[in-house]
């Protein structure tokens, strides 16, 4: 599609050589012709107005008009009275090989139980736009310069207060580094650990083996899985690995949903103190709790041993790419240097908008609004399974917007997922979360964040017999 310019004249790179024996008009014609022939200018694309181009090139407008008239006569340009001069249809060579046709749209699913996505349709767009406008209105001109790579001070101050208030974290603004979500936070933490001489990092199994191993490998670290039981990560097994760092999800274990038991938290902290090790806390899903009292962040219990990473990917939307990291003093300098080298800091306006969203109370209001929405979907999932697949047990329902379904099948996760898809239902198996990729026992990670109640009911009704064959 040709580039459309809504207002002012488009710019065009042309270089006239005033020392050349070739007259300026000939140079101009040749360069525009070449630009069209080689595809720099495509059919339908607008050329600068003669007035604008004359001004840019420092030559008379008449010369430009003569050039355009000549190229029009040759069939390269087309002009209609009252409208801009454009590249004429048929003037340019055939467009470069068309990109491969897009893969056919997958048939619309009745329901997709993909975990890890919040309700995208509930993103508080009006509040966000309000916050962006507020941030833009109040931003001092100097704040448009390169800023502190740790993040905009107003956001770090607001986040510190928020994390102290809601997560009982030991949060001070100078300990916070704003980053592009959990993904960047993890890479920054791994990089700092590698520079501190750590060689092996452990992670929970089941968990996110593929992404954790890949991020560790980039930092030059070995990654080893450690099992999770009903109280959280198995600290004895962790100790046996010799790792000096571990990534955990204490608030709501990904994907089992286990909340790390108080005693296990203390054991983990004792392990870290004993081994001079670091705990990387993925403090995700803490915002949405249902039946239980919220648990605080592990970081609040051992600020010198824990890197705590938070994100708005679940509470607002993944597309914002905003998160934060609370760094212990031993790693703070390396994390900050890595952040500076990576991107010189996250986008300032977005940071200031998030600060306004939180301090205005609109962020809390959004979370309050969303809790009953997710709770209703969770109830719909429980009811639908009870009706259509009564043998299936659900666990991990205390928080967040996914649950684990235990199917009691002998195996065959891939076939089950394929059969469900053929019926228009997206299911996601536990094998993706297991370090060995195994599919037994057969379990599903059922996300209901971005799947409405009606879709939850219809989706489960469509595959109930597959989940619990009678
Ligand atoms: C366990 C876990 N933590 C955190 C996140 C959020 O990551 P990010 O902030 O990079 O979007 C995800 C994303 O799916 C996740 O699976």
UniProtKB/TrEMBL annotation:
Coiled coil: none
Keyword Iron-sulfur attached: no
UniProt feature, compositional bias: Pro residues: 93-105
Region annotation Disordered: where it falls in the sequence: 88-107
First and last residue of the signal peptide: none
SMART domains for this protein: HTH_GNTR
GO MF, any single term: transaminase activity
Residue span(s) of domain HTH gntR-type: 22-90
InterPro entries assigned to the protein according to its UniProt record, in alphabetical order: Aminotransferase_I/II_large, HTH_trans_reg/aminotransferase, PyrdxlP-dep_Trfase, PyrdxlP-dep_Trfase_major, Tscrpt_reg_HTH_GntR, WH-like_DNA-bd_sf, WH_DNA-bd_sf
Alphabetical UniProt keywords: Aminotransferase, DNA-binding, Pyridoxal phosphate, Transcription, Transcription regulation, Transferase
Superkingdom classification of source: Bacteria
PANTHER family reported for this sequence: HTH-TYPE TRANSCRIPTIONAL REGULATORY PROTEIN GABR
Protein family membership: In the C-terminal section; belongs to the class-I pyridoxal-phosphate-dependent aminotransferase family.
Name of the protein this chain belongs to: PLP-dependent aminotransferase family protein
Species of provenance: Actinomadura nitritigenes
């Amino acid at each position: 599609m040709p580039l459309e310019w809504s207002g002012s004249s488009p710019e065009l790179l042309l270089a006239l050589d005033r020392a050349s024996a070739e007259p300026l008009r000939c140079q101009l014609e040749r360069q525009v012709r070449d630009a069209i022939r080689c595809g720099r200018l495509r059919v339908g694309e607008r050329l600068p107005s003669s007035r604008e181009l004359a001004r840019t090139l420092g030559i008379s407008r008449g010369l430009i008009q003569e050039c355009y008239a000549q190229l029009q006569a040759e069939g390269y340009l087309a002009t209609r009275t009252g409208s801009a001069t454009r590249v004429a249809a048929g003037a340019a060579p055939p467009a470069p090989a068309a990109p491969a046709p897009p893969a056919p749209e997958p048939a619309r699913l009745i329901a997709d139980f993909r975990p890890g996505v919040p309700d995208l349709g509930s993103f508080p767009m009006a509040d966000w736009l309000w916050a962006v406008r507020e941030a833009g209105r109040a931003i001092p001109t100097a704040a448009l310069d390169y800023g502190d790579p740790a993040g905009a001070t107003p956001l770090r101050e607001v986040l510190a207060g928020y994390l102290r208030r809601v997560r009982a974290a030991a949060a001070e603004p100078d300990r916070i580094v704003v980053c592009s979500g959990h993904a960047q936070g993890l890479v920054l933490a791994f990089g700092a650990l590698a520079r501190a001489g750590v060689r092996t990092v452990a992670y929970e199994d089941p968990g996110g083996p593929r992404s954790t191993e890949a991020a560790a490998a980039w930092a030059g670290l070995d990654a080893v899985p450690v099992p999770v039981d009903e109280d959280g990560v198995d600290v004895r097994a962790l100790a046996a690995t010799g790792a000096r760092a571990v990534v955990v999800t204490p608030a709501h274990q990904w994907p089992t949903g286990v909340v790390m038991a108080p005693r296990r938290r203390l054991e983990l902290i004792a392990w870290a103190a004993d081994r001079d090790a670091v705990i990387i806390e993925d403090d995700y899903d803490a915002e949405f709790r249902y039946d239980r009292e919220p648990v605080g962040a592990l970081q609040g219990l051992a600020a010198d041993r824990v890197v705590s990473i938070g994100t708005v990917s679940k509470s607002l939307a993944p597309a914002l790419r905003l998160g934060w990291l609370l760094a212990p003093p031993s790693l703070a300098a390396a994390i900050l240097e890595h952040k500076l080298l990576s991107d010189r800091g996250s986008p300032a306006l977005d940071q200031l908008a998030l600060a306004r969203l939180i301090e205005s109370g609109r962020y809390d209001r959004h979370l309050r609004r969303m809790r009953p929405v997710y709770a209703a979907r969770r109830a719909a999932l429980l009811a639908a399974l009870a009706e259509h697949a009564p043998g299936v047990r659900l666990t991990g329902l205390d928080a967040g917007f996914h649950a684990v379904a235990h199917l009691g099948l002998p195996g065959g996760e891939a076939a089950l997922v394929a059969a469900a898809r053929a019926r228009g239902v997206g299911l996601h198996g536990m094998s993706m979360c297991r370090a060995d990729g195994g599919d037994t026992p057969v379990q599903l990670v059922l996300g209901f964040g971005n799947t409405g109640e009606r879709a939850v009911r219809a989706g489960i009704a469509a595959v109930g017999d597959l989940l619990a064959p009678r």
